[in-house]
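Chain A, query sequence.
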Amino acid sequence: MLRRALTTAANKTKLTIGLIPADGIGKEVTPAAVAILESLKGPLQFDFINLDAGFEHFQKTGKALPEKTVETLENACDGALFGAVSSPSHRVEGYSSPIVGMRKRLDLYANVRPAISVPSAQNANQTPVDMLIIRENTECLYIKQEKIETDPASSLKVAYATRKISEHASRRCGKVAFESALKRDRLRQSVPLNQRVWKGKPKVTIVHKSNVLSITDGLWRETVRAVANDEKYKNVDVNEQLVDSMVYRMYLEPQAFDVVVAPNMYGDIISDGAAALVGSLGLVPSANVGDKFVLTEPVHGSAPDIAGQNKANPIAAIRSAGLLLEHLGYPDEALSIYNAVDAVIKEGSVLTPDVGGRATTDQVTKAIMDKL
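Chain A, predicted structure.
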């Protein structure tokens, strides 16, 4: 799944990482991820560049995504860590989400979101989950082409939104899904069969609603299915799931899914739902991946209700730091972060309130650091 342009970073002993804490608890969990990276043992070192973006920056300057931030990411950084962004539910003139903007500007076309359960005393009865959701990242309704008109017959307003699904974007996202299925299968071979959540052949589930949206979702479905015809994917099973039944089945039978690939909006909804299966949005990382760059971020939002209180769960951001290293070609360093996080969760004595604990952001970060 790693692209040649990204894996060139694996030859370096010092990485330059852009840091975009953005809004709310992003300013608390991003430093936690940095602390973990700096605590890694071994020759790998880091330079960090602090960059601006977010709704709070927009309120101060009128710019949610400064051009300098994008230029620095493109020209000076090996990868980036994003914190969280506040997205007002009401319309704000001139504002557009900076994370959506960066995905488009840097062509980060696949959003990779693992949802993996870790057993602990707090969740002893939790259904085992080991699912990877691949979300197309540049199209669908998120192209933000909307308009509002007045119906001349009724004088009432009517709003329209354009949805875009292209063969190009669908094919490359599908390739990420099938490559991920092969990679996960290789990694599982080192795990005893009785310890695996997924025990069968690698499988890709294509999510769509082509029974209703026969043109747009129909093109998505046909294009992703066509990827499976490549000889290299002959051992990968292909399955389909309508998006509404996907949500239903995901909650009842999460162990039925290996790799799930979905258009932008469906993938956004499904991956947030999958976070509930593993305990909290505060546990789930994601990677925005393109051919030339990777930007990782926790799946959670800016959580203004707890911002500044040292209550935010740093694990999603810390796991996102691991994902960043994994996609830049440093799997051993990434694994050490994942193992340290898993050890803290399994012990269960140092966890934040969202997963049943009483610890602070700083205390959880230190506990993970100690496991390194």
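The CA atoms of residues 2 and 327 lie 6 Å apart. The chain has two domains: 1-110+288-372, 127-277.
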